[in-house]
Amino acid sequence: MYLLPPPLRLEWDHYMRHLPRPVPGRNRLLDVGCGNGDFLLRAQHAGWTVHGLDFDPTAAGVARGRGLDVYVGTLEDSPFLEESFDVVTANQVVEHVHDPVAFLRACWRLVRPGGLLWIGTPNVTPPVAARFGPFWPMLEIPRHLTLFSLDSLDFAFRNAGIASPQYKPRGWCIAGVMQDSTNIKNGAVAGSVTSIHPGIALRGAMHEAVAWVKPTCGVELIAIAHKPG
């Protein structure tokens, strides 16, 4: 994968949530907000012992039907023991909860020393977002309760007792979000992208190139915190 051009390689890294190589006895993973279990299956195929959590019984039922171990409920009422996972991931979840700091703290408690916490969430302040204003699809009001900039996500991590995380770039998604914004502005529903206009694809590629160098300019913040141990 290292031989792939940057857009594909970085997108593949994101697809696998930057998982390290699993080590026997240190390969237990929890995905919070696992949905239908797509990522859990990918991690399992890569050698991880996987567990999921989702408050939606329908989504959890789909994941369970695929042979995955998924708990229905919240972190607060889950049966998982403290420091029992080597990796905890939560993709597009923290922006939906009423208390993001408490959510991060609860995730962090489950991470073993030497393990990591992986968080993916929309970035409210990428340079391209200002152009579209209220038509920026990552706002998703009222589903998104808290939207983060780099500074506010760092603040949330610190208040949860976690040192500032490392940020990773995505590989190729800005053009699609820009096209979605354009469609919404023209009266379409969010997520209606079927093709990307060549001009938008070119502008998106320019923004993407900046985000590869400076991940906080991307449309998502991908944060990885390592627990000392």
Q: What do you see in this structure?
A:
The protein has 229 residues and is an alpha/beta fold. Helices cover 34% and strands 19% of the residues. It contains 8 helices and 7 strands. The protein has helices at residues 6-15, 38-45, 57-65, 100-109, 129-132, 150-159, 174-185, 198-213, and strands spanning 28-32, 49-54, 70-72, 85-91, 111-122, 166-168, 220-226. Helix 7 (174-185) crosses helix 8 (198-213). The longest helix is centred in the last third of the chain and has 16 residues, at 198-213. It starts with 5 loop residues before the first helix and ends with a strand. The model has no long low-confidence stretch (mean pLDDT 94).
Helix % is 25-40%
**Which blocks of ≥5 consecutive residues have pLDDT under 50?**
none
Structural class of the secondary structure composition?
alpha/beta
Strand order of the largest sheet: 3-2-1-4-5-7-6
Average pLDDT level: 94
Strand residues, percent: 15-25%
Can I get a quick summary?
The chain is α/β, with parallel strands linked by helices. It has helices at 6-15, 38-45, 57-65, 100-109, 129-132, 150-159, 174-185, 198-213, and strands spanning 28-32, 49-54, 70-72, 85-91, 111-122, 166-168, 220-226. Strand 4 (85-91), helix 4 and strand 5 (111-122) form a beta-alpha-beta unit.
